[in-house]
Amino acid sequence: MNIYIRSQDRDLCKYLDDRALGDLNRFVREAGYPIGAVICKQGERIDSFLVVIEGELALVSTTGKTLGHVYTGEMVNELHYLKDHPAPWEIRAVRPTRVAVISFTDMNSFVDKDPERAARIQAAINDSLCLKNIRLTHLEN
Amino acid sequence: MEHPLLRYLSDSEVAMIKAIAREVDFEAGDLLIQTGERSRDLVCIDSGSVAVMVQTPDGQVKQVSELGSGSLIGEMNFVIPSRRTADVVAVTPTRITVFPYLGLTELLKGHPVLAAKIFQAINEALATKYLNMLAKTNDSGE
Question: Hey, are the CB atoms on A67 and B40 less than 8 Å from each other?
Answer without folding.
Answer: no
